[in-house]
Specification:
CATH class: Alpha Beta
Number of domains: 1
Distance between the termini: 68 Å
Strand content: 25-35%
Number of strands: 13
Shape: globular
Radius of gyration: 20 Å
CATH topology: Metallo-beta-lactamase, Chain A
Number of helices: 7
């Protein structure tokens, strides 16, 4: 009997140790991997990196602007350019030299400068750009650098053995706002359609506030278990950011 109890104790202890090791293995701690005056890069998952540049505005001051880099097998895709040429050059150099990745695509998630302000630098570096067809129309109307390739509803781009998607779910911050998703890390780039928790409504000059909540509700239905959500500005989080944005713009 004592032998059986001892054997069971060893088994329980072994299982406990195994579970602890497994949990430790799958727990990723976010860390800052690059910082200069104009650009910050944080690794937020095994193969996902938040990039932060800065845009000087009249109404909101010097605003931090988020984007996303994802990688697999020495290939990368970037959502949103940094806000200007200098920061874009810096980001491209970092991806190539530090991640040792070929950049397969740059995807602006809407037509404002915080999404495509550095697009001409990506084009000069022979990095193809992809955008929702309305983003291309609005970039032309506003005399901004125009993305090269369009899609009408959703986009899939491969990186090594993985892929990303970009998709239009409806109007909100602008008529053309799309979101990006990287299934391998369960990371969503919501762009300016998604607000950080406790944010104000922000710039509404091109917004459809009546549609905004419904659009984000559609996103939540598609990705109810998303692990990481990055807004266009401010701190990233989880599905709570979707809930906060829905509540912020819900009409009473």
């Amino acid at each position: 009997m004592k032998s059986i109890v001892k054997t069971l104790s060893v088994i329980v202890l072994s299982v406990t140790i195994f579970n602890c090791i497994a949990q430790k293995k799958h727990t990723f701690k976010a860390k800052e991997v690059y910082k200069s005056k104009d650009l910050i890069i944080n690794q937020i998952a095994e193969n996902s990196f938040q990039h932060i540049s800065f845009l000087q505005t009249n109404d909101f001051g010097n605003v931090p602007c988020n984007g996303l880099i994802v990688r697999n097998s020495n290939e990368a895709v970037i959502f949103d350019t940094p806000s200007n040429d200098k920061s874009s050059e810096e980001l491209i150099k970092w991806v190539k030299e530090s991640l040792h990745c070929k950049i397969n695509a740059i995807i602006p998630t809407h037509f404002h400068n915080d999404c495509l302000g550095g697009l001409k630098i990506f084009h000069a570096s022979n990095i193809p750009s992809y955008a929702y067809f309305k983003t291309i129309e609005l970039a032309k109307e506003n005399n901004y650098t125009v993305p090269e390739n369009s899609f009408t509803d959703s986009l899939v781009i491969k990186m090594g053995k993985q892929y990303i998607t970009a998709r239009f779910f409806g109007e909100g911050h602008t008529r053309d706002n799309v979101i990006g998703y990287f299934p391998a890390d369960n990371v969503m780039f919501g762009g300016c359609l998604i607000k950080e928790v406790d944010a104000t409504k922000g710039y509404l000059g091109d917004a459809n506030t009546a549609a905004w909540s419904g659009t984000v509700e559609n996103i939540k239905k598609q990705y109810p278990n998303v692990k990481i959500v990055i807004p266009g500005h401010g701190e990233y989080g989880n599905v709570q950011l979707l809930d906060y944005t829905i509540k912020l713009f819900r009409t009473q």
